[in-house]
Each structure stands twice: as C-alpha cells, then as structure tokens.
Amino acid sequence: MSEPSLTPRPAGTSRLAWGLVIVLGLAVVVLAGLVAVRDKEVADLRAQLPAAASPGPSGTATASAAPSANVQAEELMRSLPRRQQGDPRALGRLDAPVVMIAWSDFRCPFCAHWATTTLPDLQPYLDSGSLRVEFRDLVLFGDQSKAAAVASRAAGQQGKFWEFSEAVFAAAPTSGHATLTSDDLVAFARTSGVPDLTAFASALEDPELAAAVDAETTQAQSMGLSGTPFFVINTTVVSGSQPLDVFTAAIESYGGKKA
C-alpha cells in the first residue's frame, strides 16, 4: 500500500506557528501578572479602608458598612472632612451630618462621568442640608492633570471652583484622557465666568497652589488610593463611578434626606 501524499507547505510555516505559540504564552504570563498586581492593590485598599462598593444580588454595586473592629480606619475617615467656613472646593452646609470626600483627577474620564451624571442628582441632599461634598486632588495622569488641579484652585480663589470643574468635566472625552494645555485652562476659566483672567493666568504658576495639589495627592496615596474617582462617605468607602443608588444608599444610611 502506498503512503498518502503530503501536501507541500511553504517554508517557515512551522517556525511561524511556534512563534505564535510563544507570543501567546508570554501574553498569558503578562496578563496573569497584571491581574495579580491589581488583586494585591484591592486587597491592600480593603485592609486600610474597611468599606467598599461590592456587587449586590442583582449585580448592582452597593456600599457595604465598615466593620467596627477596624477602629483606626474609622477614626481616619472621620478625620478627613475639612469643614472649613467658605471652603471654595466644598458644597453644602458646614454642619451637614453626611460628608462625602471625593478624590478626582481632571483628566480621568470616570471622574468626568460621575461629575456630570451623578453629582447633579445629589443636589436634593445638598439642598436639604443633609450632605456636604468636599473635593480632593489625586493626580494620576501626569503634568496636565496637575496643571488642571492648580487651575481649579486658581478659579476657586475667585469663587469659581465648581463652575470651572463643571466646564472641564463637561468637555472631557468619554474614553481616554483629555488634553488640557494652558490655553485650554484659560479658555475654561473664561467659559466658567472667572472674573479676572489675568490673575487666574498668573496663579497657574503659583508654587503654593502646586504644593497644595502635591500634598493632597501624597495624602491620598499614603492611604492606599491608586484610582479615581474615589469616595469616603462618613465611614463608607465607594470606589469608582458607581450607580446613583450606591451613593444615595450610603447617604441615607447616615440619616441623609432629600429636600
């Protein structure tokens, strides 16, 4: 019986196939490493801040309560609110029973999503006097992020922090990071009604404002925060731009009510 004929194959086919196997194998190893790093970050964060957004029975994220055993973490969270009279980077009554600390980066698309879709829906809690929102910087995406944070403080010096922030976030892309040059920042200041644009432009080079941004970022990182947006609501932690009901549930768990 004659042997079946073999169809000739182009030279190098075997080498190409093995090359693909090796590349795919390396990709799996790298992906596994990235997953392990991310899992460690989440574990470290949960160890320091005991409440976090977690999926409920229907898959919707919910905010879990902080276990009383972690007294130091609770004390840390209770010490976070500034509660400063006339704070330009805060919304709501000084004596509100619920304080939400919100860490953001102006080039973070998820921060923009939260600021433009969720924060406006929390207005009834602000109007009732139940809620106070205090903004914090957590610079993650380079020099332009830091420059935008400085610019927001410069706008805040003229009473336009929230208007400036709203303008920046409203113009943000839905994915990727916004481009925020000095000219862009001046344009946003103009759009948001900053009255003295000359003073604003000068403040963009203010070393004290830059140092304040660095200090808040360093504080956040010392707490284990590595992503934005991130929230502490009294002693409840919410990570990411979660659905509105996650925030309202946390606010109402501390007695917050709508106007």
Explained architecture:
- The chain is of the alpha+beta class.
- It has two domains: 13-48; 51-253, Glutaredoxin.
- Helix content is 49%, strand content 12%.
- The protein contains ten helices and seven strands.
- It has helices spanning 13-48, 71-79, 109-118, 123-127, 143-156, 161-170, 182-191, 197-203, 207-222, 244-253; strands at 53-55, 61-63, 90-92, 98-104, 131-137, 230-233, 236-239.
- The chain has a five-stranded mixed sheet. The chain has a two-stranded antiparallel sheet with strand order 1-2.
- β1 (53-55) and β2 (61-63) form a beta hairpin.
- α5 runs antiparallel to α6 (161-170), α5 (143-156) packs parallel to α7 (182-191) and α5 crosses α8 (197-203).
- The longest helix is centred in the N-terminal third of the chain and has 36 residues, at 13-48.
- It is globular.
- The termini are far apart.
Descriptive keywords:
259 residues, alpha+beta, 5-stranded mixed sheet, two-stranded antiparallel ribbon, 7 strands, disordered N terminus
How is this fold's topology laid out?
Blueprint: H1 13-48, E1 53-55, E2 61-63, H2 71-79, E3 90-92, E4 98-104, H3 109-118, H4 123-127, E5 131-137, H5 143-156, H6 161-170, H7 182-191, H8 197-203, H9 207-222, E6 230-233, E7 236-239, H10 244-253
Parallel strand pairs: 4-5
Antiparallel strand pairs: 1-2, 3-5, 4-6, 6-7
Helix pairs in contact: 3-6, 5-6, 5-7, 5-8, 5-9
Order of helices and strands: HEEHEEHHEHHHHHEEH
Number of helices: 10
Distance between the termini: 92 Å
**Side-by-side strand order of the widest sheet:** 3-5-4-6-7
Unreliable runs: 1-46, 50-69
CATH superfamily of the largest domain: Glutaredoxin
Structural class: alpha+beta
What is the CATH C-level name of the largest domain?
Alpha Beta
- The third-level CATH topology of the largest domain is Glutaredoxin
| Biggest sheet features | 5 strands, mixed
Q: What's the average pLDDT?
A: 82
- Rg, rounded, reads 24 Å
Total beta strand runs:
7
Q: Tell me the CATH architecture of the largest domain.
A: 3-Layer(aba) Sandwich
> Could you say how many structural domains there are in total?
2
* SS strand fraction: 5-15%
What share of residues is helical? Answer: 40-55%
* Global morphology: globular
